[in-house]
Records
---
Amino acid sequence: MTIVTALEWASVVFSLTFFLLLPFELRARWKQRTLDGRSIREMLASASPFLPTLLLAGATTAFITTLFRAASSLAITHIATTPLSAILCVLLCDLLFYVDHRAAHRVRSYWAVSHSVHHSSPQYDQTTALRVSAVDGFTSPWFQLPAVLVGFDPLLVLASLGLIVTYQQWIHTESIGKLRWLDPIFNTPSNHRVHHSSLPEHLDKNYGGVLIVWDRLFGTYAAETGPVVYGLTTPIESCNPVTVHLHELRTLWRDLRQANSTIERLKLLVLGPEYRSTPARS
Ligand SMILES: [Zn+2]
Ligand SMILES: [Zn+2]
């Protein structure tokens, strides 16, 4: 088995944790009497991106292949794939994922087009991991280009990114509490619950993919110290898949139309989602 194949199998294993953890979550909701129509509609809304993602799978694969091939032709060297280089590649890709994830939260146009979808659920379970924008496949690979440009095999970079993304399946759960030994080093259910919280002290925290040490290094770490409130700071209050995907984009479009100058519009596009411009006088 090649190293790339081993990483791909690891990704399959992480993806399958969905089927392992979901029954526990459903049982917990049943016991708490919160397995109602609303919670099921939220789960279905979370699962809804699966269809567009599947339909776009061919285009996404072709895009990433073309992008990574082009970058590979510009690489400064070629690094042979060995167990050691594979570990270094996963570490670099995980750091690049941190940068990507932080940009997805801190640049409003990126937030609106893509990542706000993932954070729009007011509940937190295995289906929340599926609530991702179909455009992610066209945005995130750009952030992984440095790994290809320094000479890692594009297939290894792709497998590393796949591992980092699928790793995060198991952490979208309330069924697993704090993990004393893992929480300080890895992204875990506890750390990621904080990331999905809309409480002021939790905003823009815990961006890490596999390792949470990046957050500790760059000052964005927050431990789970009490209850969290999931979802956006302004809840979308809808389970309509179209609203889930387009809500933040519509809000950005409205703000852009109300802005009174090009500079204001640029600020709205590149500054954080909390930035508000002075509305134009009508
Ligand atoms: Zn996020
Ligand atoms: Zn998440």
Note: The mean pLDDT is 94.
---
Amino acid sequence: MNILLIYFTGTYHTRYLTDRLAERFEREGHAVTRHEFFGESGCKTEGFDLVGIGYPIHGFNSPMVFNRFLRGLTFGRGQPYFLYKNSGETFAVNNASSRVIKRLMRKKGAVLRGEYHFVLPYNIHFPYQPDFVRELLYYDSKLTEVLIFDLTHERTRLIRSNFWYDLASFFVSVQKIGGPVNSFLYRADPDRCRRCGLCAKRCPTRNITLREDGLPRFRHRCAMCMRCSFCCPADAISIGFLQGWKVNGEYHLDRVPQGPPERPYITDQSRGFYACFPRTYREIEAAFSEVCRLKEEAGEPLPELERPQSAPFAGEAREEEPASLPGKL
Ligand SMILES: Cc1cc2nc3c(=O)[nH]c(=O)nc-3n(C[C@H](O)[C@H](O)[C@H](O)COP(=O)(O)O)c2cc1C
Ligand code: SF4
Ligand code: SF4
């Protein structure tokens, strides 16, 4: 198959996921083209047998800037596509997050072949512990195998929403005005800022320009993706009314050790915020076991969960990054 993966990413988690999916499809002998949204208005979609659409969940929705970008694309009638989304937790309302994209793709006549929800660490609210991140990536690698098997064996796997989740997602979607409004409150501390220009260079909506003295100036088309504050080597950017929820420093997902942590981070006794994870793990485990059984019956090799370590990322060159980010892993 000739596969196109179109995605939006704030803090590179969706890019990480896209790279993993691309590697796996390529290992199965498929050709993959990746297109990361970077403020442009179009990309070539003709000639692909399958299109993957990837995004981070923002406030139980897909990012508005990405919806707008997809709306401008042309797809042939009957174009098969799948969704791969990721977020920090799996509260059931997240099941409704693709409702806008599904609607606009339906209008274009495209046909949904599957929807997959990966869990990656929060880039907002609070940072995740290394063992937790490792455990999430372990389950993500199982879900990746499920996705590859489904899409290469004509199997459709959908995520079901309902009226209440759709309604909640719709109400929370008012956060889409939060970015432009919050932009007025974004600031770079002149005493901390090193005038490196990294934030302006990386902002995916080109919302940041540099003043003559090198200090960033924020315009008003922010997607609240967190990339600028996440990447700033001097922790100089304050992010308005989200400042209390700021998480700084990349997780370096490509360097996380393989396999589950020595002791499970999430257990059936996990409560409060963590209570939604055991169900998600069980669902992934069940789907993965089914895939293994079907492969065994068909005499196909069983999935390997190895992730390449320190694989190069697509898109921006990693060497642009300053040597010491305020990281957590
Ligand atoms: C503005 C904003 C809103 C978010 N809302 C949600 C949410 O509703 N549910 C959730 O599980 N995670 C939420 N997250 C966390 C991200 O979905 C998660 O960290 C994701 O992996 C980020 O991917 P990216 O690096 O590709 O942008 C939110 C993050 C941001 C910045
Ligand atoms: S990334 Fe940080 S240090 Fe660099 S220009 Fe932007 S605010 Fe200043
Ligand atoms: S200003 Fe910062 S948070 Fe807003 S879109 Fe640009 S990088 Fe993302």
Note: The pocket of iron/sulfur cluster (ligand 2) is lined by residues 188, 193-199, 216, 232-234, 236-237 (CB under 6 Å).
